[in-house]
Structure formats: structure tokens, C-alpha cells
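Entry 14: structure prediction run for DUF3727 domain-containing protein. Input pasted below.
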Amino acid sequence: MTFSDSDFVQDRPTIAVKDEAGRVLMCQIEQTFEIGQRQYALLLPLDTPVEIFAWEPDEEEEDTDTLVDVEESDIEMLLPTARAVLAEHDLVLQRSAVTLSVSGELPTPQEEDCFTLDIGDIDEDGEPDSEEFQTLATFFHNDVEYTICTPLDPLLIFAEMGAAGDARMIPPEEFERLRPEIESSIFDVLE
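Run finished. Output C-alpha cells:
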């Protein structure tokens, strides 16, 4: 599902999403729907989601490097350097719930700063699923090059609305179980 900036209205209500570690991500509520007496929402983070990838030598091709995900356990040691590099671009990196995020004005995407990354899943047409990213900065840590990027498509979060005015992330196994009803509810509203 692809959304454009015009699909998102800036004066929608906001809600805090918390993770198990107590970190918070403020989101705007795009849509709410009910499934089985429970209230769910489609949320859009207010700050820009970012990811950190590492460049590692490709085992199959010499003199070629491949972008790989950074292990969650390594993020903490990379944060000070990543924060300093992004601060040079007037961006503030936060360790928020669900994702790392930055606040500040992002540069306009330029073709040379954007790339497509196969994310391993296969879509309905049998093609590898891919995601487009914009590079924000690069840095080195312990002789490894890292790239900080943001997805070009918005990160949409599905959450269960809490009675206290907060939201709970839907665990992957619960999301998969609810997927048909979530998609049906979203498409009913969009029609």
C-alpha cells in the first residue's frame, strides 16, 4: 500500500506508542477501526524513522560490499557517533519506540542519495520485495562503514488503542492473525 503526502493531514490527533523498554514514539492517528470489540489505529510517526545499515564485504563477489542490518544489540554503541554525524546536518537522533527517528528538516531527496534495497520477502508477482531509502549520513566505527537512511515511503504503524489514551504495538504474530480484518477495515474506509 503506497501513500502520498497528500494522504496525511497535519491537524490529526496524536498518540504516544510505547514499547516494552518504555521508549515512546509520538504518532498522528491516520485512521481508527474496531475489530472484535477492540479499537485499533493506523499511525504515522511525527518524527522521521531512520535505520542504520553496515557495509560488509560480499562473500560471493570480491571487491564488493553489501548493506546489512545492524543488530539491535549494536545500536547502543553506535548511537553517540550517529547522533554527532546527524547533528552536523541539524538532525536530532532519538532512540524511540518501534524505530530510531530523527527530528529536523530532511534534505530534499537527490537521485544520487537514494537507493533500493531488496528486503528478502517475495511479493505476489514472485518478485523480491524492495524498499527505497534516502541516505542521510555515513560514518565509521571500529573500521566499519555505516549508513544512516530513511525510507522514502512513510512508516505506518498498526497499534491497539489503550483506554488511557496511549497505544500498544501489535506483536507480529497477533498482526498476522488480524491482517485480513485490518486490511478489510482499512480498504472499507478508503472506498
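Notes: The first helix runs from residue 72 to 87. Will compare against the previous run tomorrow.
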